[in-house]
């Protein structure tokens, strides 16, 4: 069986780079040589601490890669060898995924940007559920990778102002560089009150919770107007 280098979370707080069996190229599957793999640090820190689904170890992390198709299985029609793609695959030198899990990259997009495709889709989906209208104030709770992308999607969707909420000062600084009009630590009651009081109805039209923390849900409810 073919092998590939793969990141593995062995136990709580312990990660390693291992040579593991690579999945077989079955019909409808594509083999991708990875050029870049995106790290969603909040999600993966949780997995590294608590384990994969069900709290299991060992666990293979990662779900958003970019690379080149090097082989296609029987019946694959939308992709061919040499195509540049992003895919839902783990942190590994080579990944095998179903055809529908890989999408061609635009010619002008490099691998470093393209590897965020699957993560960006999460942000896009979340904001689309809000159904924003032009001028609706919106809060993005959690300014990790997905939250920073969601800021930009919310702006394109007409959100105004876009309010980034996080407890990390570094993330709040990034928030202002990546689409937020205002960035606030929700633990600062006065600063948060000042922002909300300036909005019609004293709160945002909608909040998108992307922190993955229980307190984030409380914050989202607190800042959303009736």
Mean pLDDT: 94
- Based on CA atoms alone, the radius of gyration comes out at 20 Å
Alpha plus pi helix count? 7
Query: Could you list the spans in which at least 5 consecutive residues all have pLDDT below 50?
Result: none
What's the story with the biggest beta sheet? 5 strands, antiparallel
Describe the protein in words.
With 226 residues, the protein is α/β, with parallel strands linked by helices. It contains seven helices and eleven strands. It has helices at residues 41-50, 111-114, 117-130, 145-156, 169-177, 189-197, 214-223; strands at 3-11, 14-21, 29-37, 65-72, 84-87, 94-98, 102-104, 138-141, 162-165, 182-184, 206-209. A five-stranded antiparallel beta sheet has the order 6-3-4-5-7. Strands 10-9-8-11 form a four-stranded parallel beta sheet, with helices on both faces. The protein has a two-stranded antiparallel sheet with strand order 1-2. The protein is elongated and about 60 Å long. The model has no long low-confidence stretch (mean pLDDT 94).
How do the helices and strands line up, and which of them pair or pack?
Layout: E1 3-11, E2 14-21, E3 29-37, H1 41-50, E4 65-72, E5 84-87, E6 94-98, E7 102-104, H2 111-114, H3 117-130, E8 138-141, H4 145-156, E9 162-165, H5 169-177, E10 182-184, H6 189-197, E11 206-209, H7 214-223
Helix pairs in contact: 3-4
């Amino acid at each position: 069986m073919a092998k590939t280098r793969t990141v593995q979370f062995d136990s709580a707080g312990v990660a390693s780079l291992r040579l593991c069996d690579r999945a077989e190229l079955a019909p409808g599957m594509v083999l991708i040589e990875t050029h870049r793999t995106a790290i969603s640090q909040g999600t993966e820190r949780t997995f590294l601490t608590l384990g994969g689904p069900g709290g299991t170890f060992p666990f293979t992390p990662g779900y958003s890669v970019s690379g080149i198709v090097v082989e296609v299985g029987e019946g694959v029609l939308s992709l061919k060898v040499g195509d540049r793609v992003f895919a839902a695959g783990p942190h590994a030198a080579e990944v095998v995924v179903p055809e529908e899990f890989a999408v061609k990259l635009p010619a002008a997009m490099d691998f470093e940007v393209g590897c965020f495709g699957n993560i960006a889709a999460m942000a896009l989906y979340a904001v689309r559920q809000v159904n924003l209208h032009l001028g609706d104030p919106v809060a993005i709770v959690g300014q990790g990778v997905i939250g920073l992308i969601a800021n930009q999607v919310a702006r394109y969707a007409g959100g105004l102002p876009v309010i980034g909420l996080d407890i990390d000062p570094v993330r709040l600084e990034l928030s202002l560089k990546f689409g937020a009009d205002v960035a606030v630590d929700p633990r600062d009651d006065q600063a948060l009150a000042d922002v909300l009081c300036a909005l019609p109805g004293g709160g945002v039209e909608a909040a998108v919770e992307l922190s993955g923390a229980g307190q984030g849900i409380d914050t989202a409810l607190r800042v959303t107007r009736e």
